[in-house]
Amino acid sequence: MALSGCAMRLWFDLAVKILKQICEICFYQTWN
Predict the structure, then answer these.
(1) Tens of pLDDT, residue by residue, the chain (32 residues)
(2) Highest taxon of the source (predicted)?
(3) Domain boundaries, the chain
(4) Cβ neighbours of residue 11 under 8 Å, at least 6 residues apart?
């Protein structure tokens, strides 16, 4: 089942937000 370009974009944006949150959590745990 092929995803539409819009769905792909939504999943990509969601993945980027999750990765940014993980990086921020790791950063704060490292420096605090």
Answers:
(1) 566 888 999 999 999 999 999 999 999 998 87
(2) Eukaryota
(3) 8-32
(4) 3
pTM score of the predicted model? 0.61
* Three-class DSSP labels, 1-32: CCCCHHHHHHHHHHHHHHHHHHHHHHHHHHHC
Place of tokens 């974009």: 9
Distance CA 24, CA 32 (A): 12
Residues 6+ apart with CB under 8 A from 3: 11
